[in-house]
Structure formats: C-alpha cells, structure tokens
Amino acid sequence: MDDRMMTAVLYDRYGGPEVLCTTRVPRPEPAPGEILVKVHAFSVNGIETTVRNGRLRLLTGRTFPQRIGLDFAGEVAATGAGVVGFVPGDRVWGILGRSSFGSAAEYVTVPSERAGPVPDGLDLVEAATLPVATTAVTALRDKARLRPGERLLVRGAAGGVGNAAVQLGRAYGAQVTGLARAANLDFVRALGAHRAVDHRSVRPAELGRFDVVLDTVGTDPRDWRRLLRPGGRMVTIAFDTRRPVAWLGSVAASTVHGRGRVRYFAGNPKREHFDDLARHVRQGLLRPVVDRVFPLEETAAAHAALEAGGVRGKYVVQVV
What we know:
This protein is an alpha/beta fold. It has two domains: 5-131 and 269-318, Alpha-Beta Complex (Quinone Oxidoreductase, Chain A, domain 1), CATH 3.90.180.10; 133-264, Rossmann fold (3-Layer(aba) Sandwich). Helix content is 26%, strand content 28%. The chain is built from ten helices and 16 strands. The strands form three sheets. Strands 3, 5, 6, 7, 8, 15 and 16 form a seven-stranded mixed sheet that branches. A six-stranded parallel sheet has the order 11-10-9-12-13-14. Helix 4 crosses helix 5 (160-171) and helix 4 (133-143) packs across helix 9 (271-282). It starts with a strand and ends with a strand.
C-alpha cells in the first residue's frame, strides 16, 4: 500500500450522517512547528454534526469535500522543523483548533502547542474522550472563577463537556446540580453531582438560584441567566443554531443589563491546557467516560448515535 496515502472520513455535501464516507487521501506532512500524529482514536462532538448538516454553511461555505474530526489521541509519527518537546513514538492528545477539522483519519498534522503528552496508564481510546475536557477547565476555572461552596448548574451534564464539568465542579468544591435525561440521572450522580434533575420534568425557574451556570446546550439563554444569584456568572459553550440572531442578541444584551453577564467562548486550548488536563487525570479528579466505540468505517453511525441523544460521556471512533 502507498504510504503517501491514508484513509480519512469526509463529505461532499451537507446532510445527515449518511453523507460521510471513507476514502483515500494524501497523507499530510508536518510543516515547521507541527507534529504528524498517527491517530489511534477520536471522539464525536456536537459542533461536528452541526457543521456537517449545514446549519453553519454561512461560515463553512460550499467548498467540498470537507473533513471532520476535531480531537484525537495517538502517537507522534514525525515532527516538523523547530518542534521541541515531542519525538516520534510519544503518546499525545490534542485538538485541531477553533475552526479546523480533519482528525477523522489515519494521520493528522497539528501545531505542537495544540497537543500534550497523554498520562501514563491511560489507554488511547479513553484518552480520546478528554481533550474537550479542557473546555470545562477553562469555563469553570478561568471564565467563571468557580469557588468552593458555590452552587453550580451544568446543562447537558451527561455529555462530553458536561460530564467533565460535573467531575471538576465537585473537585473544585462546588455544590453541583446536573441536568440530563431521566435515563442518565444515576450516571450523573455517579460522576459526583449532588443533585441530578431530569431536564424535561422541570422548568428552569423551579431549580432555584445558582452562582454559576455552565450551558453546553445553548437554547433559551434568558431563562437560564435568570437563575443567577447576585454576582453570578453564566458561561455557555454552545449557541442556538435554530435562532442564531435571537441568541446573539440575548448574549449581547446580557453585557448591558440584567442578572449576570453571559460569557460565550469556543474551546481553543494550547499546551498549557493539556498539561493541566493531565494533572487533573493523575490526581484522580477527572476520569474518561467512554459510552461506545465505533470503527472508522462506522463513523456515520457514531454521528447518528450522537444526534439521537442520550450519550453518556463520549462516543469514540477507533482508527487503529
């Protein structure tokens, strides 16, 4: 087999999971400052399904084919000029960046600062669930400045970022309430939540008041913002793709008036974030949660499963 080529997942039109296909494409070479990673596994993230189905086509354009895959765990295969701290054979995890996709492949190149060493003893399939946990670390520690004893509400507590936020919120000493489907409430409690609530069984106003709200869902920001105590902080990592203009207006208005500002950010971690993530894992403050593993040729099935809802942790696609 030609080692200048590799298998990757891509799509040539917007649509449902069925538009995804595996094909042979040229294997990339690392540019200066980049590492070439032999991908062992990657996870499926909500932003990927949103982009794939065309809801963000005004941003992503109509040039095809397009690639998928945001995060990865694997081994360094080669390094570009100027790279320090990595050598071939190192086990690494990382995220491609705020607007880059392509880790759904046998190999991927990434700037060396967007990767970090995987902690010893952590399987690479498990490791693939955790790069997005850097988002939870940034949201709770840096954006919200969560303090011991504060009340934390996590929307989407059973999902990829949500499950990490529950674990970290508990580790930071907060009183954690997690919202999830009824079938996932025991799972959310097992993660460390003091209280787990079926999001379909209550209205937001019935939940009480919170110092910090972490929203991984993105809908109805006004309703969740009203739950903040004086001095409270709301951080959202998602936006309402059904009503993007109204969502943007609501977030913008929160900077001017009302109870608490809504802070929105898209995860864009660097080496220091992955080093911090590894420290949390080594200290036992954060554990990977694998719901199901799919082979590369069933990436479409992994997308369909995520869109069906009810995930506990992460769906992972194993490449090798």
